[in-house]
Amino acid sequence: MQPDAEVRVPAETAYVAVVRMATAGIAARLDFTLDDVEDLRMAVGEACAMVLSRAAPDGSLRAGFRLSADRIDVEVSADSTVSEPPDPASFAWQVLTTTASDVHATAADGRVTVALSLVRDPAGQPA
Amino acid sequence: MTDDERELLTPRERSSALFALLLAAPEGEERARARATLIELHLPLVEHCARRFGNRGEPLEDLVQVGTIGLIKAVDRFDTDRGVEFSTYATPTILGEIKRHFRDKGWAIRVPRRLQELRMSIATATAELSQQLGRSPTPREIAELLGVEIEDVLEGIESSHAYATLSLDSTDGSDGVTGSMLDSLGEDDAELEHVEIRESLRPLLEELPPRERQILVLRFFQQKTQSQIAEEVGISQMHVSRLLTRTLSRLRSSID
Lengths: 127, 256
Known about the structure:
The complex is a heterodimer of chains A (127) and B (256).
Chain A: E1 5-10, H1 16-29, H2 34-52, E2 60-67, E3 71-79, H3 91-99, E4 101-108, E5 111-119
Antiparallel strand pairs in A: 1-2, 2-3, 3-5, 4-5
Helix pairs in contact in A: 1-2, 2-3
Chain B: H1 3-8, H2 11-24, H3 29-41, H4 43-51, H5 60-77, H6 86-104, H7 113-133, H8 139-146, H9 150-162, H10 188-193, H11 202-207, H12 210-220, H13 226-233, H14 237-255
Helix pairs in contact in B: 2-3, 4-5, 4-6, 5-6, 7-8, 7-9, 8-9, 12-14, 13-14
């Protein structure tokens, strides 16, 4: 994915708040509703936690955003030595799939990635 | 100096006389008394500092108590040769203890008053607009109604996430709920019965306080939106968001 916006921070829990804030800022700029903004913030926070639990120490945590009028695609990733992707049967996964669309996770080539999207609900549109 | 003479002095003069005594007197009763009097004399300063942190959910008495620890430290460390007023010297120490108390409690160190007020206005505006529009408002719509920037709205929401802990026994005035949170809890267990939850997850969910569990189930197992939950449970959307965020991080740490 070639991101339109990207945030890169040290792969530490303390920086997740920064990523969440940037996420909320971007979604608000694109006029998503507060419900959507908060859902995406939560989903990205969860994705960060998921990725960080598999991240190599001293690496970086990256969140890339692709922006369009009706959706935001996010990829959260970190350097990792683990080859197991996050477990789709976990509660964290349930949180992700409830708060975001098109969720998928990969672990390959020394990188663990969680991708998710926020899609604008045509029924809940601002006029 | 007799007690009568002491009464005639200003607190400041009295304070420096006592410090002179404290530093000159050998270990003993007189020294201990000077120290105790100094602490007592400056208690209003502690109260003043503690008041600056009022309305943050911590009882004022607790803040005065931890602030007093700061005051005692300051009395013991004060050096009259430095040429600064004791109150000038003591204030940062007192504030430091109070802030540490908030930090230890897992609260935000300092949410400025401006943000607290903004947070309240956002909650009100969100409720108003949701009613009016029949859907969740956008941050821009909230910003326009309040005459502020979108960033201010986001900052206000973020600051509400900073308020991490709230006892279930405390009343939640900001959301117009009367009585304690525990009183407002309803038939949450019935909700757990009707959803399909993996067995491995049940014990974790059952450990949660009833309201947190109810909100979690509504959101993640019955796919309700935050706004719908807010209406159903009778709290603000921001509060739903706050509780969900907190519950998720709690679950995360118990799974790890």
